[in-house]
Amino acid sequence: MGISNWPEDERPREKLxxxxxxxxxxxxxxxxxxxxxxxxxxxxxxxxxxxARFGSLGALLHxxxxxxxxxxxxxxxxxxxxxxxxxxxxxxxxERARATDALSSPDAVRDYLRLLLAxxxxxxxxxxxxxxxxxxxxxxxxxxxxLTQTSVYPREVVKAALRxxxxxxxxxxxxxxxxxxxxxxxxxLTDTLKRALAMIDVRVLDHFVVGRGAACSFAERGML
Length: 224
Hints:
Blueprint: H1 12-19, H2 26-34, H3 43-54, H4 57-62, H5 76-98, H6 106-117, E1 124-130, E2 136-144, H7 154-163, E3 168-174, H8 184-198, E4 203-211, E5 214-217
Parallel strand pairs: 3-4
Antiparallel strand pairs: 1-2, 1-3, 4-5
Helix pairs in contact: 2-3, 5-6, 7-8
């Protein structure tokens, strides 16, 4: 039975308008973007099948289909809508991070980095450069690696800090395995970057290791 035949207060769009977006399940939120399902499947049922196939809402939103790949119920227009929704979320969180003091409101930066990195399939190393008032100047992806590691070059990090006239920096990288736990190599890298940046009076405020659903802070763990 199509959604149009459901009781009005159970239709995803009407439910959102009357009860708020938080009242909807992941599949119901997806259904609003998908708009229609496929023969024999409502948009909500299609949403459930996509979540089961990809494992999570984040994995689906971050997925980049190959040009020749066919995912049942998903054409280019629907993929475009989901990518647009993800980018809107990133930009809203980036605005929030830029508008706040990164030290007094660390959750704003953490939330942005989680959305940016949590579902990446390869390791990515990001630097968030801050001004003297701890406001975000820019978040820049500096290095991209493989499934298990990224090569980070301190000289390039120093050059980027000078280019942005940064007073401090927050680093972040993801673990595609999903485990947000710093390794010994992560600790050694952070110490190396701290020493290199100290030569140009740029402080390292934190280093986040981002996994699926979590982000570990070196500063909170006393590792800086």
